[in-house]
């Protein structure tokens, strides 16, 4: 039984507002800029937009440190701009989801400003304060962008907890007053007619009671057992759903850590009444770690595809604002950039789950290689570099090479609209340097070329819209042990599509199982020209070749 939902049939597009389009020439992308590009997005065919945070923020972590949830960062625009953008998106048949950062706020948020003043302030318990232990932090937990997850505050002689930087104190979800204040804020946003939320770092909202030390560690440690998915995690999510979310026809997507198929079902199965889906990105981190290993990629994706089918939904992605660009990591950013970008597009758009395309992915934007650390902006990148050079004594060339490969700024360079000096993003020097490859990789040129990655994404999106088998269909893997080729079918009623992907720059031989009859099949899309005669006798696949066929007859295996 399939429960159809608009958000399952959507194709999502992530906008990193700061780097998308600058409408007023201050070097920073903004809301009127997004408004001006809605027609571009409509042409691409996406219909669900996720915006990274646009709220008031001192920007220690590019907006993930919010100082006022109900105010807009002046650099981005005004609340009137937001309302206009929502209205105009809706008029074009697109929906908008906002980033919801409710594990922490900025240390400049009035709640925290009050909280830190004294131990008996009414807002004290909106955050997590503890006494030190033996002249040190309360425990050995490590923060994401720092060493200790605790920072000492002289005003009251206590430490506060922060999963990320010290500028991002964690909210105390154990306090019902805090939860009520958050729900009220969420409701205010929903009343503005937005279509849902991406829930930032949501795994962290419930911590282990008593904040126990991670045993046996001689340094600070990211304590997966105690810092995430604490005992109240599901209770909080259900309360959030019941109190606010369930009253609106919206979609919720969780940024969740350490997911398994089982824990996803526990959270995203419809009867759980928690979240609609988590992002799926095990394959991103794993493929980066494991190198270019197609076998591993299909193992991971197959486990998710089979495990979640008709049990829970998910949101697969290959790129986002926290990861290097997939063309550069798993694909091939030089000779086979176009082919490999199209290959990953094919995979993303043919999997079960709401696909999330990240800005620039549709033109095959790549990682960037800045020659000096001074050109990087991301707090995580700068901290990592500092730790490498200052603490581990790594030489600067090696440290920079690590940054080139891993920096979140790889995905944050300005959207390449054209080949003018500021890439058509701005009329002035942008807040972060542009990727010098803009002269060959840009939207203007992609739109003019009917063979471009952009044109290919357009076609893929339309394919997904016309074949519900790609949304709801059953997934079946073939050639499981082939080291290079990833081949699977998606079947829904009598619509059966076969996806063939050569995930390497090599030219492997494809020998399909005899049961798959390609005769009379229809080639729906491919990233290389295909001779019609070739349809029947597929043999050698070209580097990063991708094809999708509609099979004529359902096969019996
Ligand atoms: C999420 C965001 C990331 C941010 C962090 C802290 O992981 O995607 O960009 O730095 O949360 O809010
Ligand atoms: Ca601007």
Tell me about this structure.
Helices cover 29% and strands 14% of the residues. It has 557 residues and is an alpha/beta fold. It folds into three domains: 309 residues, Glycosidases (TIM Barrel, Alpha-Beta Barrel); 52 residues, Oligo-1,6-glucosidase, domain 2, CATH 3.90.400.10; 78 residues, Sandwich (Immunoglobulin-like), CATH 2.60.40. The strands form four sheets. An eight-stranded parallel sheet has the order 12-11-10-9-5-2-1-13, covered by helices on one side. The chain has a five-stranded antiparallel sheet with strand order 14-15-16-18-17. The chain has a three-stranded antiparallel sheet with strand order 6-8-7, with no helix packed on it. A hairpin with a 2-residue loop joins strand 15 and strand 16. The two termini are 23 Å apart. The mean pLDDT is 95. Bound molecules: alpha-D-glucopyranose and calcium ion.
**What is the CATH homologous superfamily assignment of the largest domain?**
Glycosidases
Strand content: 5-15%
Number of self-contained structural domains: 3
CATH level-two architecture of the largest domain: Alpha-Beta Barrel
Give the bound compounds. alpha-D-glucopyranose, calcium ion
- What's the total helix number? 18
Please state the structural category. alpha/beta
Give Rg in angstroms. 24 Å
For the largest beta-sheet, the strand count, sense and barrel status come to: 8 strands, parallel
- In the predicted model, the low-confidence regions spanning at least 5 consecutive residues are none
Name of the CATH first level of the largest domain? Alpha Beta
The CATH topology label of the largest domain is: TIM Barrel
Mean pLDDT: 95
Q: How are strands sequenced across the largest beta sheet? A: 12-11-10-9-5-2-1-13
- Global outline: globular
Helix content: 25-40%
Q: Kindly, what is the distance between the CA atoms of the first and last residues, rounded to a whole number of angstroms?
A: 23 Å
Number of strands: 18
């Amino acid at each position: 039984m399939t429960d159809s939902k608009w958000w399952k049939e959507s194709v999502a597009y992530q906008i990193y507002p700061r780097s998308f389009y600058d409408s007023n020439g201050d070097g920073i992308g903004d809301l009127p800029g997004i408004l001006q590009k809605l027609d571009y997005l409509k042409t691409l065919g996406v219909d669900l937009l996720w915006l990274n945070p646009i709220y008031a923020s001192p920007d220690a972590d590019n907006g993930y440190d919010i100082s006022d949830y109900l105010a807009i960062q002046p650099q981005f625009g005004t609340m009137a701009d937001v309302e206009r953008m929502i209205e105009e998106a809706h008029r074009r048949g697109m929906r908008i989801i906002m980033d919801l950062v409710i594990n922490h706020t900025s240390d400049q948020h009035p709640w925290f400003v009050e909280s830190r003043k004294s131990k008996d302030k009414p807002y004290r318990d909106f955050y997590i304060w503890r006494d030190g232990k033996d002249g040190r932090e309360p425990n050995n937990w490590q923060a994401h962008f720092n060493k200790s997850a605790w920072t000492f505050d002289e005003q009251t002689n206590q430490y506060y907890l922060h999963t990320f930087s010290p500028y991002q104190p964690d909210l105390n979800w154990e306090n019902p007053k805090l939860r009520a204040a958050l729900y009220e804020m969420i409701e205010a946003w929903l009343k503005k007619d937005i279509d849902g939320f991406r829930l930032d770092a949501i795994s962290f909202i419930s911590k282990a009671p008593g904040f126990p030390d991670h045993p046996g560690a001689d340094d600070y440690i990211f304590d997966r057992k105690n810092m995430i998915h604490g005992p109240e995690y599901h209770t909080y999510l259900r309360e959030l759903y019941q109190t606010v979310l369930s009253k609106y026809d919206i979609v919720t997507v969780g940024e969740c850590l350490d997911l398994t198929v089982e824990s996803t079902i526990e959270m995203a199965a419809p009867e759980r009444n928690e979240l609609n889906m988590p992002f799926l990105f095990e394959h991103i981190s794993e493929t980066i770690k494991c190198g270019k290993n197609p076998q591993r990629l299909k193992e991971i994706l197959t486990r998710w595809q089979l495990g979640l089918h008709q049990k829970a939904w998910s949101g697969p992605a290959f790129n986002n604002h926290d990861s290097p660009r997939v063309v550069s990591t798993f694909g091939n950013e030089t000779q086979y950039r176009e082919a490999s970008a199209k290959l990953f597009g094919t995979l993303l758009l043919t999997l079960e789950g709401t696909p999330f395309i990240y800005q620039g992915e549709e033109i095959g934007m790549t990682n960037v290689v800045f020659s000096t650390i001074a050109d990087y902006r991301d707090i995580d990148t700068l901290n990592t570099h500092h730790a490498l050079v200052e603490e581990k004594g790594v030489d600067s060339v090696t440290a920079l090479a690590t940054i080139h490969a891993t920096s979140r700024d790889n995905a944050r360079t300005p959207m390449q609209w054209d080949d003018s000096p500021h890439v058509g993003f701005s009329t002035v020097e942008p807040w972060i340097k542009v990727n010098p490859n803009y002269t060959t990789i840009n939207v203007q040129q992609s739109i003019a070329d009917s063979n471009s990655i952009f044109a290919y994404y357009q076609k893929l999106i339309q394919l997904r819209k016309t074949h519900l088998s790609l949304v709801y269909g059953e997934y079946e893997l073939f050639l499981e042990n082939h080291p290079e080729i990833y081949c699977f079918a998606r079947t829904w009623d009598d619509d059966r599509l076969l996806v063939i992907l050569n995930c390497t720059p090599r030219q492997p031989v494809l020998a399909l199982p005899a049961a798959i009859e390609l005769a009379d099949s229809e080639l729906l899309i491919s990233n290389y020209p295909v001779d019609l005669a070739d349809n029947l006798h597929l043999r050698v696949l070209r580097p990063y070749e991708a094809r999708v066929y509609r099979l004529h007859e359902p096969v019996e295996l």
